[in-house]
Amino acid sequence: MSEPTDHYFSAEPTAPDERRPVTVRLAGRDHVLTTARGVYSPDRLDPGTAVLLDRAPDPSPTGDLLDLGCGWGPIALTLALRSPAARVWGVDVNRRALDLARANAVAVGVDTVRLVEPDDVPGDIRFATLWSNPPIHVGKAALHALLERWLPRLADDGVAHLVVQKHLGSDSLQRWLNEHDLGLACTRLASAKAFRVLEVRRR
User: Mind listing the domains of the chain with CATH numbers?
Assistant: First the structure.
């Protein structure tokens, strides 16, 4: 059972930093990575992320790619494995998660990933691909503020894919993205295992 969600979006989790191995399949290969308490889904690759990795189209082969809310790194590492010529950014506020993700990048053998806090991403970068299992549990206002900050940073031909559980508001989030004045269009790309994958592009 996953650790309760009241710590994973904190900068400094209060749960003990008890590290553990977990085997996950990324880009067609099994990898033994490290997780810990106080981060999102410390015991396994969570089902939503698994759906995103399975259903999202190929990421851009070049340019800057973003994993928004990277946690211990499965999405960012997959982007790096699938697009070795691209530069991948993994962003999270949870410093323990970033530390784990950096160790996991070494374990997987990728050196094109920058795992940083949000303010450490240069403001002029535009993203060719953005993948995210966004932190729904932070609340609607905080979630909307997060998406308002990052989705407008898509490149002109960039595309974002977000995975959201149906009963946690995927349809209402899709409506909000289409109705809110961000210059973006959101469509439903896929549905699987109680999750929806939303695709976001510039209008």
Answer: 19-202 (3.40.50.150)
pTM exceeding 0.90? yes
pLDDT at 1 over 90: no
Half-sphere exposure for 178 (CA within 13 Å, toward CB): 11
The per-residue pLDDT for range 139-157, each reduced to its tens digit, is 899 999 999 999 999 999 9
Looking from the CA of 185 toward its CB, the CA atoms found within 13 Å total 8
Packing angle between helix 74-82 and helix 47-55, nearest 10 degrees?
Answer: 20
Question: Please, are residues 77 and 71 in contact by the beta-carbon 8 Å criterion?
Answer: no
Pair type for strands 19-26 and 29-36: antiparallel
Instruction: Please give the pLDDT value at position 137.
Output: 84
Q: Cα separation of 19 and 35, whole Å?
A: 6
Concatenated DSSP letters of 94-133: -HHHHHHHHHHHHHHT--SEEEE-GGGS-TT--EEEEEE-
